[in-house]
Amino acid sequence: MGNGKGKAKELSPQDAALLIQMNYRAHLAHRSQVLSCLRDLAVAKAKLKELRSLFYNLSYRRRLSHDHEERQRFSEKIIVLLLTVEALEVTKELLCTEDILPSI
């Protein structure tokens, strides 16, 4: 319990239990956010894999070059993927900030 600022404060068993419980709940909430972010990342990775396979498919590329509507749909899929990845980056930054803030 030493924090370098003199004598450590003794906590009552109830206060210690409450402190442990609060920290554990915060840990569970943070872990839940991280796992949710990882699930979203897995979905984005699968979408990227799908788009990549479509792009490397020569017959699909020919179709893209001639079919404006299909090219538009493909472009929209790419934009959605980019927005998803950007949202994941923002979430990652927020989660990292949460790790730093309690230590300040």
Automatic annotation (TrEMBL):
It comes from the Eukaryota. One of its GO terms (cellular component) is plasmodesma. GO terms for biological process: protein folding. Keywords: Chaperone. This is Uncharacterized protein.
